[in-house]
Amino acid sequence: MKAGPSAIHVHIVLLGTAAGGGFPQWNCWCPTCRAARSAPHRAARRRQSSTAVSVDGERWFLLNASPDVREQVDCLPGPTPAGVRHVPVEGIVATDAELDHTLGIVLLREARHLQLFVTRAVRLILERDSRILPMTQAFARVDVHEMQLGQSIPLRYRSGESSGITIEPFQVPAGPPRFAREESPGHTVGLILMDEGSGGSCAYVPGCGELDQAMLDRIGETDLLLFDGTFWTDDELISLGIGDSRAREMDHQPISGADGSLSQLATLSRPRKVYTHINNTNPMLLEGSPQRSLVERAGIEVGSDGMSFSI
User: In b/e form, how buried is each residue of 14-35, taking b as 16+ CB within 10 angstroms?
Assistant: First the structure.
């Protein structure tokens, strides 16, 4: 990080660190969900994946808006509002159009004025397929800012004032949502956040089907990495008898194994590395488990709700 004596840092808060369905998932009694209910000291509950970023600690941008957004907004730091209405969310940046990352948009319709930062591919899915965008626009003004792959865009407050944060989307290997009519570039992206004041940076990649050297080089230059920790093994759902798809078939690189993300991320020396978007079946959710120990020995953290950072 390049912070000077008067630099203002970007604050980052993990509002939810579970994959779709949360942890424990309402209908799941796999070993980890069972532990979360019977021995909560071994497995902390987690809301669905979302992250918040702010410079002043009062006005926030959400990185994905989960179905748990109401409770997550209540957890945002900031002073007690003096007025009758208060909207701490200045905008939403979506990395894809999956339901667990976008249902929260329509749930924030009472804001009456929202900003949405998305690629053209994500915008089209939200307009034509899930219909989340027109539903929200029936209740609120939504200013849509299209992001271009490989190009930085400033995050501005609803007033038009600069927040001091820029974001750059980059393509990651993954398929579109199963309800999307077509596949086009930019339907799933990672984000590079840059603090214009301190020079600090963060890579946010909640979904990734494969890590190649080019992406490792890119995310390895940041100060903080929030990365896809969905599945521990490729056959996780199959071995538990609750699914017939492998992790890679669902566009999530497993953590373990010779070609898993753990061995690859462990080679990166610069960023602070944190797993997020963790599926309810992943055994590293259990405190003291062999899987958790392996992750921690590799110098990577298992994200939890409320964890915060400054860059």
Answer: bbbbbbbbbbbbeebebebbeb
